[in-house]
Amino acid sequence: xxxxxxxxxxxxxxQLFRLAIALPLLAIxxxxxxxxxASPPILMTPVVVYGGDYRVLPGAASLNILxxxxxxxxxxxxxxxxxxxxxxxxxxxxxxxRMPRFSVRGWRENNFTTGDPAVGIYLDDVPCADLYSRxxxxxDVESIxxxxxxxxxxxxxxxPGGVINITSRQPGDAWHGNAGFTYGSYxxxxxxxxxxxxxxxxxxxxxxxxxxxxxxxxxxxxxNGRRLDTQExxxxxxxxxxxxxxxxxxxxxxxxxxxxxxxxxxxNPGRDRNFFRVARDYPGHVDTETWNLAFKAAWHGEAVxxxxxxxxxxxxxxxxQDFDFTSGYDFLAPPSPANPFPTIGFSRPDLGQWTQEVxxxxxxxxxxxxxxxGIFGNWSETRVASGRTVAIPFNGTDHSTTRARQExxxxxxxxxxxxxxxxxxxxxxxLRLTRDNREMSRGRSGVNWLDPRFPLGPFAQPRYRVxxxxxxxxxxxxxxxxxxxxxxxxxxVTAGYQSGGxxxxxxxAAQSGFDPARSWHYETGVRTLWLDQKLELNASLFxxxxxxxxxxxxxxSDPAQAWMLNADRVTAWGAELEVIARPSDALTLSLLAGxxxxxxxxxxxxxxxxxxxxxxxxxxxxxxxxxxxTYQIWKGLYARADLVGVGRYYLDEDNSAAQxxxxxxxxxxxYAHGNFEMFVFGQNLxxxxxxxxxLDFRPASGLILQPGDPLCLGVGISxxx
Length: 721
Description:
about 725 residues
């Protein structure tokens, strides 16, 4: 039997008809002298000049760029709001909304505490090479670049699904800045401020940016009538650039984020009234803190550019939640999946990470040979204390804690080159050599608080230590044919890789390890410009064949326990279409559409004796579509709308429960004059009820859903100075 959760407003397929109805709702751009939103850029340049840095990105690259306020709405935009900003891209909540997980082209991240990311993220050339600290506030952002497919030959911290590169606004040779404030539903208040400029002319520049926001919760606790999921956000960034002489530039980058949140929104279909009306006996909290420090040195020669980035990242979180997902225990009824013992789960991870990356790139865009090469090192330590407290009637309180320390070392050499054979043909080749070391020590303890002298036998486990090495050789081959001056066909074959590692949830060393995922990615497509660059049309087909695909499974009996295991073989194929039309200076229309079919070809879970052969990979939507329109009405009056559709996807490996297709409509209308702008905005205007993630604790607690944000309206002002 397949659960569809239809009573809770999750869309059926036929409801996508609303996409066509909403399309005429055009978004509108501001005046020519003060545009509030930037037009999509031209993507055909063989070598992208990006913040003064030459990148080897041939026309064969599956590249999307979002610039200057990529999503209509308020300043609280984070990486979790990037769903469908590129074809086949969806961002899921993790075990809370401060740990986003990416799903792209059949690769999806549903793991919490172990494994490597499927999608790499860079912020100002600093890699976020972990699964924890990627909930980045997109404030004061210059551009967001997303390159799809394995990128191990271009970046030190790449991923088999792609790389997202975020660049903040950089200080220049004149002082300028911007400030803004928004107010919206649920008493949402956000303010941001940024100032940039020269401290010493032609030598030293400074940039400072910050954002602060608060919001009441979306979820009401029926036990006491209070809002559960309140949020408070504080973030800041400092940039210091020193140019002592013409070829040299040194940069110091420092940033921090702090999130103080309440209850992680969860919905128990068997017990709760709806997504935003639940009954919980423990309110819970999620406090998260991230710090980044980086030193960047760059030498800009006539033929090459050398860049070195040394960075340190710190991330810690304190989470405590109601893990029985109920309002309490009924002492008159026997324990059952609908009546579990009151349980509080907790997790306190602490991550410290050092990275060193050196890249060398060619700088002559007219040369036949374009190339890049680099070395990369990553050293990290993660300490996690997690567990649960269970109130057992007439037996006191049982407490179990798992303490684990994960150490990871990664070393890589990588490079890629494109050679032009005349004006028509390009040959593409690349290679990456990676070596990983993974080490884990772990133990588990438990206490019965009625008699603390005696540990609980089922909870207590001896401490053990495991270590292993993994390596990979990843080649890349490709060819591109320029059949018109601004039209190119390409075909590439690229190897992908995710390191193996260890599960902190496993009680024995023999069961703790999982293997690396290794894949071959095949892609062909066209990237074209027509009508004097007024129409951009790109299309692609891809196929990925993966051995030892990594799957994160939850314990049905213990929400605090989960582990990574390998599916022997997974295949994924799909298609993507990008259309950007500019019929006039005042109007821009866009369509981004993707289709993915990902299947577990061979997957046997030895822990429970289940086979999932032939099942669709969960958390991979069958399609994504994004319709956007901007229109400049008259003398600074503008409007903009984005309609994002996400196709049906399964919530579990057995394909017994699914989230049906849904659509999210966002819009912004405002007036811009000179350096001043005021606007109104709306998010999820169709008020869709949908699950942004699911936790499968059946049969103990059921299938627990994490709802997406409801309809929100707001107003805002901004100014440049």
